[in-house]
Amino acid sequence: MTQSFYSARAAITAIGSYVPERVISNSDLEAMVDTNHEWIVQRTGIVERRAAAEHEFTSDLCFGAVRDMLTRYPVTIEDVDYIIVATTTPDTITPAVASRVQAEFNIASSGAVDLQAACAGFVAALQMASGLLASGICRKILVIGAETLTKVTDYTDRTTCILFGDGAGAVLVEADQSDSFLASYSHTEGKLGHNVYSSHLSNHIGGIPVDRKGKLVQNGREVYKWAVTRVTAGVEKLLEQQNLTTQDINWFIPHSANLRIIEAICERTGISMDQTLYSMVYYGNTSAATIPLALDLGIKTGKVQQDQLLLLYGFGGGLTQAALLLKWTLAS
Ligand code: UT7
User: Fold this and answer.
1) Are the C-beta atoms of residues 15 and 295 closer than 8 Å to each other?
2) How far does residue 304's CA lie from ligand 1's centre (Å)?
3) What residues are labeled active site?
4) Are residues 302 and 201 in the same domain?
5) Measured distance CA(259)–CA(268) in Å, rounded
6) Contact 291, 251 (CB under 8 A)
7) The whole model's pTM is what?
8) Residues 207 and 322 placed together within one structural domain of the fold
9) Tens digits of per-residue pLDDT, 69-96?
């Protein structure tokens, strides 16, 4: 589904990010499973990833990202009227991580929900936020993508444990005179959902048996092929419907699952790797957090500038895709 926003009148007015201190390097993983640094870098682009401490959970990473945002931008959040946290690794099923954020920052009166769309979660949360702002229901929304994936990673499985890391990114989205949210694309293939899962209660997905309760399991090769073909098709559809070409996009910010997936999508769509921002090299695959982490790296390095056109593209578990075309309005 592609959707243009004709009256979103909303913009991102602040951003912050946080990663835990502990580093898991590729050589640390060599001591745990039969793998090696060269294989990991060549097949995934990942050099290291961060891991939350035993006492540190997704809500703590959210607090870190929000605090970072508040120290960098002159914004207030006590008057936020909605909080959306995109995560597949909430501290608890209930209360929502968003409720903990509301309590931590003494936000007086707001809605607070967690949104679970795996690696598409942050962009899906931004889509929801822009809808709430466009309808006039809300004026100021805190959107966070945060994960502690290392807590659900199976460190005996070399095909997954090399990939995942922990981190968080937060943005404030406010009703504004600018038109920042230009177009949106969503697409889900639920029948393929069994290819990436973390099962807590059920032992099947649509009749297909699943195992390793509480751990993240994936059929990497299938997800890889799906991502390359489907994201390529989605990028082309979104740009075509907006009468844009890849040349019009200043920064493509896809989910950082694997550098080779991004290179394959860029090759097929004609987007240059020089126009692409990603976060997996030092943070690994942080699911809902990869896109805000990459965006914030782009801001901190001076690459992302006011008035540029950004294409944020989340994809993964579901199997779900969520994309947004944004005009970046925040001054650097
Ligand atoms: O974010 C959610 C969505 N997830 C994704 O988008 C992930 C998509 N998939 C991937 O990123 C890749 O499929 C992986 C990184 C998971 C795997 O890379 P691959 O190039 O698809 O490898 P493969 O599964 O085809 O395995 C190639 C070989 C196999 O050995 P044989 O059968 O050729 O002898 C594997 O057993 O590499 C072996 N292998 C490893 N070797 C060293 C698998 N994992 C490892 C490892 N170290 N960690």
Assistant:
1) yes
2) 32
3) 119, 255, 285
4) yes
5) 14
6) no
7) 0.96
8) yes
9) 999 999 999 999 999 999 999 999 999 9
